Amino acid sequence: MNQIILAKYGEIALKGLNKHTFEDMLVKNVRRRIKKYGKFEFSRAQSTLYITPLDEGCDMDSVMDALSRIFGIANICLAKGFDKDWGTIVTKGIDYVAEALENAITFKVEAKRADKKYPMKSPEMCRELGGKILERFPNLQVDVKNPEITVTVEIREKMAFVHAVKIEGAGGMPVGSSGKAMLLLSGGIDSPVAGYMMAKRGVQISAIHFESPPYTSDRARLKVEKLAAIMSRYCGQINFFCVPFTEIQEQIKNNCSEEYFTIIMRRLMMEVAQRICEANEIQSLITGESIGQVASQTMHAMVCTDAVCKMPVFRPVIGMDKKEIIDISRKIETFETSIEPYEDCCTVFTPKHPKTKPVLSNVEAEQNAFDFEPLIQKAVIDTTVYSIDSK
Ligand code: ATP
Ligand code: MG
User: Fold this and answer.
1) Per-residue DSSP letter, 256
2) Measuring from each residue's beta carbon to the nearest atom of ligand 1, which residues come in under 6 Å?
3) Cβ atoms within 10 Å, residue 113
4) Where are the alpha helices (DSSP H) in 58-212?
5) Under a CB-based contact definition with an 8 Å cutoff, are residues 7 and 73 in contact?
6) SS3 299
7) 19 with 12: CB under 8 angstroms?
8) Per DSSP, what are the bridge partners of residue 142?
9) Which residue has the higher pLDDT, 255 or 292?
């Protein structure tokens, strides 16, 4: 179909000797995410992944959209292939990039010769193509330092390719290159953003959700699954663990003072999550906490929560204002789902006056009023897990 996609690496380009391991991971992720749109051939050169569709039916819009959400790619462009005859490259190539040039003020031409036997040298190609562009768009100006549009012509073995429009990629590092983490995923705005931010740095995300039926409904869980599905467009496939949490919450209510409900609940969530992590070779936890946002997210509360954690707890939105978090949630399209009004287990037994500065020894004494260990074990055993992927 005479088209080729160029996906330029982001930070991978700066890697040294181990660059190829990151590249392999990126290619694996790209293959997996676009295979439903057709057959492709992949090649790599100069920190760029070249993706050639092999059949006419490839849905290129969907491919470009999927690629724009794959971490590790700085930008993407769709190039058109032409016969290597120079006259054809100039006329048809300019037609192909005309729309971008019509709205621009400055441009430059870049030429790349993979086919070293091609009769023209790069500077000559730039000069000639640049001249023809100026003839057709007399208002344009050449700016080699900081052009608005760069028209690139690449002479490869079988064909020549021309492109000009770059789409911004998702940046970051390829998912799978930075270990695994378990995201505590509620139905709120913050935790999907937290998961996205860690996945952006190459962390492979699993999600754990605590539900308390009949206090929480099936629809509340379905909402969280939907959030995970939206996230998977960036994070890739997500293992989703759903923990029945009702009994634990009821026993907190029956045995502990009300002002400690939330902090004890959070410690028990961490206990369950860590055991599931250990069984699944996941090395860390992620939450959507932002310091000071609510009573359970004070420094004191986090100290008491982390006292039960043996693994690192990452809180990537810790220093962000709600508005900043919302901006990202809109960008990654989780916002509209997050604001659907369903109950969360956190709000089932919310204390009227939660302790904002809990003291660890007091929290421990409250929690020791009941032996939660058998219930923790039962919750782990009764947890269901399924795979969530983007449609
Ligand atoms: P969010 O917007 O992510 O729900 P929040 O501001 O509502 O966060 P809390 O309800 O205090 O904050 O929850 C803090 C964090 O605890 C969440 O970001 C999430 O990581 C985790 N969490 C809360 N409820 C659940 C749940 N039902 N299942 C899994 N994790 C949860
Ligand atoms: Mg919440």
Assistant:
1) S
2) 184-186, 188-191, 208-210, 287-289, 293-294, 296-297, 344-346
3) 16
4) 60-67, 86-102, 122-136, 190-200
5) yes
6) helix
7) yes
8) 107
9) 255
Q: Are residues 76 and 68 in contact, defined by beta-carbon separation less than 8 angstroms?
A: yes
Question: Are β-strands 73-82 and 167-171 bridged in parallel, bridged antiparallel, or unpaired?
Answer: antiparallel
pTM given for the model: 0.92
pLDDT in tens, 35-78: 999 999 999 988 899 999 998 888 899 999 999 999 999 999 99
Tokens of 348: 């089932």
Distance 184 CA to ligand 1 centre (A): 7
Which atom of ligand 1 is nearest to 297's Cα? 11
CATH number of this structure's domain 3-168: 3.30.2130.30
| Domain locations along the chain | 3-168, 180-388
Q: How are beta strands 106-113 and 141-142 bridged, if at all?
A: parallel
| Topology of domain 180-388, CATH | Rossmann fold (3.40.50)
Question: 187: CA distance to ligand 2 center in Å?
Answer: 6
Sign of dihedral through CA atoms 22, 283, 315, 379? positive
State the closest ligand 1 atom to the C-alpha of 294, by its place in the atom list counted from 1. Answer: 11
Give the distance, in angstroms, between the CA of residue 23 and the centroid of all CA atoms in the same chain: 17
Strand pairing class (149-155; 106-113)? parallel
Under a CB-based contact definition with an 8 Å cutoff, are residues 268 and 163 in contact?
no
CB 237 within 8 A of CB 204: no
The closest-lying atom of ligand 1 relative to the alpha carbon of residue 296 is: 11
Distance of alpha carbon 361 from alpha carbon 339, whole angstroms: 36
Would you tell me how many other CB atoms lie within 10 Å of the CB of residue 34? 23
